[in-house]
Every structure is written in structure tokens, then in C-alpha cells.
Design a protein that fits this description.
- Helix 5 crosses helix 7.
- About 55% of the residues lie in helices and about 10% in strands.
- The longest helix has 17 residues.
- The protein starts with a helix and ends in a 5-residue tail after the last helix.
- A four-stranded mixed β-sheet has the order 1-2-4-3.
- By secondary structure, the chain is an alpha+beta fold.
Length: about 170
């Protein structure tokens, strides 16, 4: 399953890369107090406008493992493929921040380790929301929404979770 998710994420990144653009300056400015400039300069975005990201080939298996509690990709606001964030309709602050958290996790942990932790977290908890990588992303995007302008480093938070073994 881990190998299949790795292949899927790489293929989807390549699929959407030709239609992607660098992260717009106004989004970078709003995210600089939370993310390293190197990441913000590397991230690209694609907006599908009317099209939807189809469910991956492993969707039926993941849905069965989670007793039906696996998200339908067509209803998600965005999805992160390594350093490329794909949005269905438009870029919005909170989904962008959530996706940038995942991009930070991938950059810090490495792509292969990130996918391994993601899949193992899903299999262990049998829930998409029970995956520690997702739990952290939701905690941090909630923190941003609640605090507004509080500056904090997502990279430091990812490092702390990794050091404390909270992803395992």
C-alpha cells in the first residue's frame, strides 16, 4: 500500500505540474510568518475550476479499511502532491495553510518517510482524521484561524513532533 501511494502521489504531481504556477506573492506574504521562504518559493499551485481530482486507485480499499470514513477527493478543497497544491475551485487561506503544513511535513520528513507515516497512521487508526500527520495539520490550521496574526513556525512544530515520536 505504501508503494502504491508513493506512485500515486508522484504521478498526480506530474499530471498537474504543467498547469501549475508559483505560489502568488500575496499568499506568500500572508504565510511568511509561519513557513520558510525556501518552501514558499518552491511550492506551486494549480486550480482546476470546474474539474475535480478523481479518487485514487486505492480509494475503495481505503474506504473499506476505514468503515467508510475516507474522504472523497472530489469534495476536498485541496490536495498536496509533494510541493504542488491542487485546488478545485479557488485558493482560500485555510485550505492553503493546511496544504502548506503537509508540504512542510514532506520537506522535513522526506517524501518516502511522510508517505510511510501517513499510510501506517491510517492503517493503525483506520481513520483519515486519526493519522498523526493530519491531526497536526488540523491542530495548526485551527491555531492559525483562532489566533489570526500570531507568528509561529510550522517547521518548528513539525520538528518537535518528529523529535517526540508523535508521528509514529
Amino acid at each position: 500500500m505504501i508503494a502504491g501511494v508513493r506512485v500515486y502521489m508522484r504521478q498526480e504531481r506530474e499530471r498537474y505540474l504543467p498547469m501549475s504556477v508559483p505560489l502568488a506573492t500575496e499568499w506568500k506574504v500572508g504565510a511568511q510568518q509561519h513557513f520558510p521562504n525556501a518552501l514558499l518559493n518552491r511550492v506551486r499551485t494549480a486550480t482546476l475550476k470546474g474539474a475535480r481530482i478523481p479518487n485514487p486507485h486505492f480509494y475503495a480499499e481505503a474506504k473499506a479499511l476505514s468503515s467508510g470514513r475516507f474522504p472523497d477527493f472530489t469534495h476536498m478543497a485541496s490536495f498536496t502532491y509533494v510541493d504542488l497544491i491542487v485546488f478545485h475551485e479557488q485558493i482560500e487561506r485555510r485550505p492553503l495553510f493546511h496544504s502548506l503544513i503537509h508540504a512542510t511535513q514532506i520537506a522535513f520528513l522526506g517524501f518516502d518517510r511522510y508517505v510511510e507515516l501517513y499510510v501506517r497512521g491510517f492503517v493503525k487508526n483506520r481513520s483519515w482524521l486519526g493519522i498523526p500527520l493530519e491531526a497536526q495539520a488540523y491542530q495548526l490550521d485551527t491555531r492559525l484561524a483562532a489566533s489570526g496574526s500570531e507568528a509561529f513556525s510550522v517547521e518548528d512544530e513539525v520538528r518537535l513532533w518528529a523529535e517526540q515520536g508523535l508521528y509514529d
